[in-house]
Design brief:
Blueprint (H helix, E strand, L loop, with lengths): L5 H9 L13 H10 L10 E6 H6 L6 H4 L6 E5 L8 E5 L7 E5 L2 E2 L22 E7 L11 E7 L8 E9 L3 E9 L7 E12 L8 E14 L2 E15 L21 E3 L5 E3 L4 E18 L2 E24 L10 E2 L3 E2 L3 E24 L3 E23 L8 H4 L10 E18 L4 E18 L10 E18 L2 E12 L3 H14 L8 E13 L3 E22 L5 E23 L2 E24 L7 E13 L6 E9 L14 E9 L2 E2 L9 E2 L2 E14 L2 E10 L7 E11 L4 E10 L4 E9 L1
Parallel strand pairs: 4-7, 28-36
Antiparallel strand pairs: 1-6, 2-3, 4-5, 6-7, 8-9, 8-38, 9-10, 10-11, 11-12, 12-15, 13-14, 15-16, 16-19, 17-18, 19-20, 20-21, 21-22, 22-23, 23-24, 24-25, 25-26, 26-27, 27-28, 28-29, 28-30, 30-31, 31-34, 32-33, 34-35, 35-38, 36-37
Amino acid sequence: MRGFYFIAAAAAAFLATGVAGASEPDKIERLDSVIVSASRAGKTTPVSYSMVGRKELRAANPMNSLPMTLALQPSVVISTEGGTGLGYSKMTVRGSKGSQINVTLNGITLNDAESQEVFWVNIPALSTFLSGVQVQRGLGTSACGAGAFGASINMNTAFVAADPSLRLDFSAGSYDTAVFSASASSGLLPSGLYFNVAYSANSTEGYIRNGWVDAHSLFAVLGWIRGNNSLRLTYLLGDQRSGITWNGVAFSKLATDRRYNSDGLYKNAAGEKVYYRNNSDNYRQQHIQLNWTHQFNPSLALSTTLNYTDGYGFNEKLKQGKKLTYVGFPKAFTYGGGVTGKSVGDMIYRKTMDNGLWVLNSELRYAGEKLSLTGGVYLSRHDGNHFGELMWSQVLGKDYPYGELNVQSPENNWYFNNGLKQEANAFARGEYKVNSWLTAYADVQYRLVDLDMSGIDDEDDLPMDFEHRWHFINPRAGINAVFGPHRIYASVAYGNREPGRGDLKEIIESNNLEGGDRELRPEKMLDYELGYGFAGKNFSAGANIYLMEYKDMLLETGELSRSGYAIKDNVDRSWRRGVEVYAEWRPFNTLEVAGNATFSTNKIRDYVKYYGKYDNMDDWNLIGMVEEKIGDVDMLLSPSVIAMGRIAFTPLRNIGRGSLKSTTIDLSGKFVGSQYWDNTGNSDRRIPSYFVADLGLSHEFRLKTGAIGLGFYVRNLLNREYYSDAWVYRAYFDAENEWYQEEGVFPQAPRNFMFRVSYSF
């Protein structure tokens, strides 16, 4: 199925809203909030969530990616490939990986349709643009788009400033890091028009060698509000180039060279080991969103968004001593009299992807005195090409017509494959106020997912043909009770999730090589949540018990494919069960103390691990599998203890004069318990527990026309040497009767510094 009813339906739904009325500035906040309200939980929604506001986002260390800014939220663990905040970042919530976390921007999912991941490096300095972030834990609420399968992050840029504003921000620090951002807003004009724009440029050499990053982002909004209507055009650009760091550091080198990076190393003409600087990952992503919101009356509003996302990128590599057949040339190829397909030499190639995503998202919300209803429909079409380009070959020389090879088509590339993923889904959610203290909640989502993959893979020149259609129904229900400052809630939710392209690709390749018929099944989860919260004047606290019960969970085995993808497999039964506690205390208006902790068990039942069995270390011919019966075991990269503490102190707020009142000291610490590299429970493959402390100092000088802000940030204040992520590959060789192991760990930077200066009005 290669066609889709997308364009016709998109046009019909998008034109369903009208425009009328006179300017009413007092409705700005209410109209704009409709854009993202459908995907967010409210005060009476029985789900576990936390909020991060605009002020907190802007006060964060400017080196931080958004995952690092969210690191202090309950059950969140973050890691960076390059060791600092810039570059590739990963986050887990309750141990759930990036592909299981649904991320939305203004109600539109940012998860890549094929891998289901969000690559945060492609949208650098996003914190600058956001007005708020809600982090839901568990299955959360239904939203248009792919359902969450462990957590969801709902981001909002939909704010309208009442007055004109300008902000300039420059930061510099360790590892030649520099971050610059500028933003401006027109405020709401008498005509109802408004304009916001923000630009950010980020660069660093990184902690890991050749882990440099050069990233730029642009955010612009042109909006119009008139009466009960709002029209909003949003543009978001993320453009990044970075050194490749996904291999990590071999464990054997960790003690002697924590900054070692094997990717990009080569021997020059003098026989010296140097880095190929352009051994790099490159990606440009552009999002265009057009939103039309109509408020029929104070209780009823419709919001419709049309989104297009364009993505183009490649990783470029230098390889030494490779035959031309390595990049698809036939063995019988001849050129220039002496070059054949078997000729050996250095080469530079690119693995490229070019994709486009169309989305139509329409949501209707009713908010009555007792009953609140939200419903939505979502249509998407993602078309992605993957192909290989030879850029230069030592044996072919500079005059060879490389450009003729690199046209996007199956005939002109050593591999070319396409993935077409189309989705239609709808959801309806309701909250009914039974009485003054009790609210009942119900929610159901239906998803139709159609995936068609075709073409040749980059590994072993194997076909990737695959076609499948999935139907999912994801229901949720719960109750919420409020007694004065006390809140109690309980919910149960059921979710499904299809495999990603990378997961399927590895299985298809395995079946082609081994003649098997193995397939990946969608993963399923039943999520029980029971929570209590207390919100007093100066003190708030709460606890949440969760039981996330999985069937056919797609779990990383700890191995990596040759393309750097984590290999996954279905496991019959597994679970994540735990309790989350949090508290916040403000004993004085100068002091804030906060903390949270998660205690959990994350298990796979009756796990059996398989390893490849090869003939010998020279030939690497697969001759079978080695089976290891593990039994009940801890899931990889799932710490059983996560805890955070934070103190914010403004010592001169009550006694200082003028700008001295703003001086703030912010000290935080994060503890992450030990976690395993793989699902074997082997103590030799375990990340030790670690504690990281961060310090922030800020001060603001108030001027007649604005303010100058100063900030000083220390990451890893105690200078701890630790690593926060790891992978491992193991195989058995029959002739040598030996195990082979390859691994990579990801060291995080020792104590490092950032200094910031900003001007705003």
